[in-house]
Automatic annotation (TrEMBL):
This is CRYD protein. The gene is Crydash_0. Signal peptide: none annotated. Keywords: Chromophore. One of its GO terms (molecular function) is deoxyribodipyrimidine photo-lyase activity. GO terms for biological process: photoreactive repair. The keyword Coiled coil does not apply.
Length: 77
């Protein structure tokens, strides 16, 4: 969970993630974790800036050969 997603937007400072969206997100992550657990796997959930968290996770795991990610598309006004 990137703390920046819970701050205001660039325009008008509207929240990027409101309470309903946050509840949906938390319930979805919980359901995914439970589904993976039933299949013998797990889900790693962290809070922080992805550029820091992913680096720390790679260091902890030690055997990572690839990292895949996407960036949020921002509209230029």
């Amino acid at each position: 969970f990137d703390p920046r997603h819970y701050l205001g937007t660039h325009c008008y400072s509207w929240p990027k993630t409101g309470p309903h969206r946050l509840r949906f997100l938390l319930e979805s992550v919980k359901d995914l974790r439970e589904t993976l657990k039933k299949k013998g796997s797990t889900l790693v959930v962290r809070k922080g800036k992805p550029e820091d968290v992913v680096c720390d996770l790679i260091t902890q795991l030690g055997s990572v050969t690839a990292v895949v990610f996407h960036e949020e598309v921002r509209e230029v006004l």
